[in-house]
């Protein structure tokens, strides 16, 4: 039996209809659709959040919470790739090939002393090139839009992307080699927990933001609260992971004497 998904609520909440219908009207429509037997009500998507941010009138999160409180049909959100690279773990072969090539180059180049020395010597040049190329790309994207695949503009932006990536890598590796290649208890502590921190942080930020965005405080207060609370919770989870050998191994942390020295 086919499953039907209704997209009315999402379409009413994004351009060109965004702002023309109030949340109260959307809720009444959602209640009617709730009894129609749809498998899912698609209530939001990237365009909805984009329209809300541009207009600054209503919170898309509050609208989703209000719809959820008044309906029993499962709610859905439309997620689709806006750029050629979707960053999907499966199916986005261009993206996988791109980053796998960077990984291979790093595996080959980083052990070479000459590469590290060159990165450290040219770290300022790398940082300057990164800033220039990054600003140029930000300026060119709206000027060249729409960009046809494999056009001259497309090739120019890909070239700028390559300059941004490599200049950033040179700057980061160079500055890290100069300032982080020294004995430090703080560096040992952070280095041991960097992978579990990476695994936890994004999920924690989303969960914390879900609750904090409902506050009546201003945006800067919310941003500060999300940053501080997310950092504290993520660090606490990293500490919990480091308490047993099993969890340390699952999260890529060192075990044995090396792990105790890092902690």
Number of domains: 3
Shape: globular
From the alpha carbons, calculate the radius of gyration and give it in angstroms. Answer: 24 Å
What number is the mean pLDDT?
A: 81
The portion of residues assigned to helices is: 55-70%
Q: Label the structural class.
A: mainly alpha
Low-confidence stretches: none
Number of helices: 12
**Proportion of residues in extended strands:** under 5%
Separation of the first and last Cα atoms:
56 Å
Run of helices and strands: EHHEHHEHHHHHHHH
Major sheet details: 3 strands, parallel
Count the E strands. 3
Biggest sheet strand order reads 1-2-3
Task: Please characterize this protein's 3D structure.
This protein is mainly α and 263 residues long. It folds into 3 domains: 5-78, no CATH class; 112-179; 185-262, no CATH class. Helix content is 68%, strand content 5%. It has 12 helices and 3 strands, in the order E-H-H-E-H-H-E-H-H-H-H-H-H-H-H. It has helices at residues 8-12, 23-34, 46-55, 60-70, 93-109, 113-121, 123-144, 152-179, 185-212, 219-241, 245-250, 256-262; strands at residues 5-6, 40-45, 75-78. A 3-stranded parallel β-sheet has the order 1-2-3. The mean pLDDT is 81.
SSE topology sketch:
Layout: E1 5-6, H1 8-12, H2 23-34, E2 40-45, H3 46-55, H4 60-70, E3 75-78, H5 93-109, H6 113-121, H7 123-144, H8 152-179, H9 185-212, H10 219-241, H11 245-250, H12 256-262
Parallel strand pairs: 1-2, 2-3
Helix pairs in contact: 2-4, 6-8, 7-8, 9-10
Name some characteristics of this structure:
three-stranded parallel β-sheet, 12 helices, 263 residues, mainly alpha, 3 domains, 3 strands
């Amino acid at each position: 039996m086919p499953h039907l998904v209704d997209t009315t609520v999402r379409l009413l909440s994004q351009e060109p209809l965004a702002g023309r219908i109030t949340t109260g009207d959307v809720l009444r429509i959602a209640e009617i659709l709730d009894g129609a037997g749809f498998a899912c009500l698609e209530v939001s998507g990237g365009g909805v959040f984009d329209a809300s941010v541009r207009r600054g009138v209503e919170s898309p999160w509050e609208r989703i919470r209000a719809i959820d409180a008044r309906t029993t049909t499962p709610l859905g959100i439309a997620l689709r790739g806006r750029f050629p690279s979707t960053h999907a773990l499966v199916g986005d072969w261009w993206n996988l090939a791109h980053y796998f090539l960077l990984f291979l180059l790093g595996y080959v180049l980083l052990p070479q002393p000459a590469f590290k020395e060159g990165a450290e010597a040219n770290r300022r040049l790398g940082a300057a090139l990164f800033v220039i190329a990054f600003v140029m790309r930000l300026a060119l994207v709206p000027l060249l839009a729409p960009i046809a695949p494999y056009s001259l503009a497309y090739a120019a932006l890909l070239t700028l992307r390559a300059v941004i990536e490599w200049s950033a890598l040179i700057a980061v590796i160079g500055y890290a080699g100069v300032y982080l290649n020294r004995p430090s208890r703080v560096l040992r502590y952070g280095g041991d927990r960097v992978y579990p921190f990476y695994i936890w942080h994004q999920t924690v930020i989303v969960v914390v933001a879900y609750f904090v965005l409902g506050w009546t405080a201003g945006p800067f207060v919310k941003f500060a609260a999300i940053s501080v609370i997310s950092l504290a919770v993520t660090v606490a989870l990293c500490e919990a992971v480091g308490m047993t050998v099993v969890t340390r191994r699952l999260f890529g942390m060192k075990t044995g004497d090396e792990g105790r020295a890092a902690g």
